[in-house]
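Minutes, methods subgroup
Present: GH (chair), OT, SY

1. OT presented the first of two proteins processed in the latest run. Sequence and structure tokens recorded below as shown on screen.
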Amino acid sequence: QVQFVESGGGLVQPGGSLRLSCAASGSMFSIYAMGWYRQAPGKQRELVARISVGGSTVYADSVKGRFTISRDNVKNMVYLQMNSLKPEDTAVYYCNTIPVATWGPGTQVTVSS
């Protein structure tokens, strides 16, 4: 089974950038599509970006053109580069396989002036 530890979150001003990292443990990482999810207060968790084993990507409309997902199958890492951040991007961000496995602790992203 794959487990995850997310990092890289923080407080950033609108228009700023952050790069999130996800370290995955487990031997099955390289056979799964991966996703970055987020959950804002009072809202359901949503998938914002996904990447296939081969590197094909799909983004939610709300982040398209601003976020970039990538993966390193040798290092068992997944990344989310977030640019032009908006207050509505404030949430706890999680990585996980598709379909999902056990959730990690997530990393808090707060976009505020």
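2. SY then presented the second protein from the same run.
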Amino acid sequence: EVPLVQSGGGLVQAGGSLRLSCAASRIPFDDYAIGWFRQAPGKEREGIAGVNNGDGRTYYTDSVKGRFTISSDNAKKTVYLQMNSLKPEDTAVYYCATALPPAMHAIVTGDLPVDALDTWGQGTLVTVSS
């Protein structure tokens, strides 16, 4: 059983919306955080949002703040990323990952490297056309 399974994504016009899902298994969900990352062509993978599943605390990087919303459904052990007002520069492969809350916050915000994470979803492509 794969720890993180993603769904959602696809093609949308600029200004549109998409929702990504990340379903977790085999982890103590409430003790962990889930983060969303993305990797655009030719660029490094970057963190964009995270949520502490236990207390619901959320955080975002400036590139998505005010447009994206991360949320956690603890009963379903699933984290969502609602993406609104999408821009062509949001085009990327999106990944979810899990870690303990302090580590996830540090990684999403860039204080620790992304390759410190070792549990990832399979990735899903989001393409925003202009």
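Chair's summary of item 2: The radius of gyration is 13 Å.
Next meeting: continue with the remaining queue.
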